[in-house]
Automatic annotation (TrEMBL):
SUPFAM superfamilies: SufE/NifU (SSF82649). InterPro entries: Fe-S_metab-assoc_dom. This is SufE family protein. Belongs to the SufE family. It comes from Candidatus Cryptobacteroides faecigallinarum. Residues 16-135 form the Fe-S metabolism associated domain. Pfam families: SufE (PF02657). It comes from the Bacteria.
Length: 141
């Protein structure tokens, strides 16, 4: 497990820059889909009810482990856009300390326009994913 080499703010800034390269939301969705394809394989045996994120219309499993005081996330989803969204959150927050995660306002989601460009059910799922990541950080502080 590698810790993040960039600060949380630098990573968030990179994400904002990447999304600003696309003018159309369709292109941003395509980028999210590509991000989802980059997720590490998620073991079938970890697709359990305990790892399901409540509040998502599609199924999203989130697993984590602690290594050296940092939280490393792994996830999967049965929906391609949702998989891209959780992949984006993992890219930003995996390998961070609980304190770093809890100090984040997750405003990167607003800065890239993600929340307002999702359907209401996907936006609720995004909020649920963020809440679960924060909950895991709080439990492991």
């Amino acid at each position: 497990m590698e810790k993040q080499t960039k600060s949380l703010q630098e990573t968030e800034s990179d994400v904002v820059d990447e999304f600003s390269m696309f003018d159309e939301w369709l292109d941003k969705y395509e980028y999210l889909i590509e991000l989802g394809k980059s997720l590490t394989d998620y073991p079938e045996e970890k697709k359990t009810d305990e790892r399901l994120i409540n509040g998502c219309q599609s199924r999203v499993w989130l697993d984590y482990k602690i290594d050296g005081g940092r939280i490393f996330f792994n996830a999967d989803s049965d929906a391609i856009i949702t998989k891209g969204i959780i992949s984006l959150l993992i890219r930003i927050y995996s390998g961070r300390t609980p304190e770093e995660i809890l100090s984040s306002d997750f405003s990167v989601v607003d800065k890239i326009g993600l929340k307002e460009n999702l359907s209401p059910t996907r936006a609720n799922g995004l909020v649920s994913m963020i809440a679960r990541i924060r909950e895991i950080a709080a439990e492991n502080r």
